[in-house]
Design brief:
3 domains; globular; seven-stranded parallel beta sheet; alpha/beta; Rossmann fold; Alpha-Beta Plaits
Length: 468
């Protein structure tokens, strides 16, 4: 038995069985460092970036300290963005399967505040939310945090950048004074250390070994010259043909323009930015993660917390001036041990940004004139996504589980298990990814058949924001 096996932790067998079902067998470095002291009740200041398994680490720790259905929430996780909050809540729900009747809710802007209020009135055990929305419920008297045993601040450095610390401090003061406090941050500047001193007691500062993912990323710089930026983008995508990619723009207006231009050129692309409804943003991220969408055109804020193991490429349509933003962007690819590709387009207006980045992440990357690049003459359209997404209007409230959906598709419809992709179960709706070739048959079978002896309406999910 290795020292990084989850079985070395003081966890009961049902927890270990669930971790095995989730294919969590060996702890990541931050999990191996932080879980033992967190399970023992210690405050921890953990330094670890996205994709390192920190959500599972603090998720297991906070679940070990709650009592379901006790009347008041026992754990609170604060996240800087809506997308990250949704992602963390999903992870905690998966980890909580051995703890019967555990209710995890997300409180974040863009969601129905009336629906959140109803959930709070019925009682919750774990809250994952953004500071502004949590503060709103607290100020209106809808939220009692006096029984919070574990408070987590995820991406604390990002919260500082976004100006959330005063709000987070107000929320922390409303929690139990003897709580356990866990802070996680990709970097530990002096402001985060001060935050730890304010919020935590005798915290352990743990630094996870850095996985040099940049060594697995092939970086390419194309100098545009006289070539139009959008034309250059289509040429680059037609040549490299990434299975999936996020194209970063500096402004939300640019995202819409670029997504439309790509679609007209034969590349099915969808925008993602703060001007979209939260429901639409969630749908876009779901489809990208499950392989039903190839190209996403996004701003940095919208892509914060984006966690996809096998994202083929990142493209900087606009080059950022800030080195940390550039590193964050290219960090979306080459995750979980995979290799990745980072492409940047450099026009005449990007010279100052390029000079700034030459002192850091682009120090040794050559600049290739696009006219001299061997991109071939492939102007063909990109292949469609390998998967499609079907929505089933039933979820956790209907006691649906992934196994129920798999059983209906394989037994009743005759779909091979290998053609079934990711399944996401939400409160009142579920999503299943299927091989595109089997989509029509699967949809017809689900509409005509039953799941757990009950008929559920099903429909094909289309990407919001996509040009028809």
């Amino acid at each position: 038995m290795t020292e990084t096996a989850f079985s070395t932790l003081p966890l009961a067998q049902p927890w270990l069985d669930n971790l095995a079902q989730l294919e969590y067998r060996e702890m990541t470095p931050i999990q191996a460092l932080a879980l033992p002291p967190m399970l023992a009740g210690r405050d921890v200041l953990g330094q670890a970036g996205t994709g390192t398994g920190k959500s599972a680490a603090f998720g297991l720790a906070l679940l070990a300290r709650i009592t379901p259905r006790c009347g008041r929430p026992g754990a609170l996780v604060l996240c800087p963005t809506r997308e990250l909050a949704a992602q963390v809540a999903d992870e905690i729900r998966r980890l909580a399967r051995p703890l019967a009747h555990t209710k995890v809710i997300t409180l974040s802007g863009g969601s129905s505040i009336q629906r959140e209020r109803a959930s709070l009135e019925h009682g919750v055990d774990v809250i994952v939310g953004t500071p502004g929305r949590v503060q709103d419920h607290l100020a209106r008297g809808r939220l009692d945090l006096g029984a919070i045993r574990t408070l987590v601040l995820d991406e604390a450095d990002r919260m500082l950048e976004m100006g959330f610390i005063e709000v987070a401090s107000e929320i922390a003061r409303a929690t139990w004074s003897e709580r356990q406090t866990l802070l996680f941050s990709a970097t530990i500047p002096d402001a985060v250390r001060a935050l730890s001193t304010t919020f935590q007691r005798d915290a352990l500062h743990l630094v996870a070994p850095v996985d040099d993912a940049s060594a697995r990323v092939t970086q390419v710089l194309y100098e545009l010259g006289a070539v139009d930026r959008t034309t250059a983008l289509t040429r680059v995508l037609a040549h490299h043909r990434p299975a999936s990619a996020v194209i970063f723009c500096n402004h939300r207006e640019t995202c819409d323009v670029v997504a439309d231009a790509l679609t007209l050129a034969g590349f099915a692309a969808v925008p993602l930015h703060g001007g979209m409804e939260q429901h639409d943003r969630n749908t876009v991220l779901l489809m990208l993660k499950n392989g039903s969408l190839r190209l996403l055109v996004a701003t940095d804020v919208a892509a914060r917390g984006l966690d996809i193991d096998e994202l083929g490429a990142v493209v900087n349509y606009d080059l950022p001036r800030d080195g940390d933003i550039y590193v964050h962007r290219i960090g979306r690819t080459a995750r979980a041990g995979h290799t990745g590709l980072a492409i940047s387009l450099v026009g005449s207006g990007d010279r100052r940004a390029l000079d700034d980045l030459r002192d850091g992440p682009l120090a040794s990357v050559p600049l290739t004139p696009l006219v001299d690049a061997d991109l071939g003459r492939d102007d063909g359209r990109a292949p469609p996504p390998a998967m499609i997404t079907i929505a089933i209007q039933g979820g956790r409230h209907d006691r649906l589980r992934p196994g129920d959906i798999v059983g209906a598709l394989t037994t009743e419809v005759g779909i091979a298990a290998t053609d079934i992709g990711q399944i996401s179960i939400l409160d009142r709706i579920s999503f299943v990814a299927l091989a595109a070739a089997e989509g029509a048959r699967a949809l017809a079978g689900l509409e005509q058949g039953r799941i757990k002896k009950k008929r559920f309406r099903s429909y094909l999910v289309t990407a919001p924001g996509a040009r028809r």
